[in-house]
Amino acid sequence: MDDEDFAADAALFVRLRATWEERDPVPAGLIDRMIAAVAVEDLTREYALLTLVEGEYAAVRGDGDQSTLQFSDGETSVLLHVTVTEDDDHRIDGWVDAAATAVRLVQGDRERSVTVGEHGRFAFDGVKSGMTRVRLAVTRNGEVTEFQTPQFEV
């Protein structure tokens, strides 16, 4: 393909695009609506917001003996308080503000479940150090969905 063929093809594509834009234009706001729809799709699984509540640079591992983490997707919020126990394991105390029926703590292949108590409270004892995720079965509008935190290190 030489430069003349390339220029002719480019001109043809410009005319073709102009024809489509005239005959079947993209609806106003479609691009913004599509970006918003993709951004919120499966929000609870991948884009939960992580916020350190206590101590701007508090670490779950290291010099700090405790950390408080908050995760939210705009509808459900989970507060986790992580402390180091005397045997160098961890305890995770949690609270959820939604109607949750079960909570699972996932660390690699290991998984543990607890039920949610009164006022959305739950706890895990003997949590080993490592990458951790919390998953909750949450009832929203009569439908059970899963809320999961991003991974965090204890």
Short description:
This protein is an alpha+beta fold. It is built from 3 helices and 10 strands. The longest helix has 21 residues, at 3-23.
Question: How would you describe this protein?
Answer:
- The relative contact order is 0.14.
- The protein has helices spanning 3-23, 30-40, 43-46; strands at residues 49-52, 66-72, 77-84, 90-96, 99-107, 110-115, 121-127, 131-140, 143-148, 152-153.
- With 154 residues, it is of the alpha+beta class.
- It is 23% helix and 43% strand.
- The radius of gyration is 24 Å and the shape is elongated.
- The strands form 2 sheets. Strands 1-2-3-4-7 form a 5-stranded antiparallel sheet, with no helix packed on it.
- The model is unreliable at 44-63 (pLDDT under 50).
- It contains 3 helices and 10 strands; from the N terminus they run αααββββββββββ.
Give the key terms.
alpha+beta, five-stranded antiparallel sheet, about 150 residues
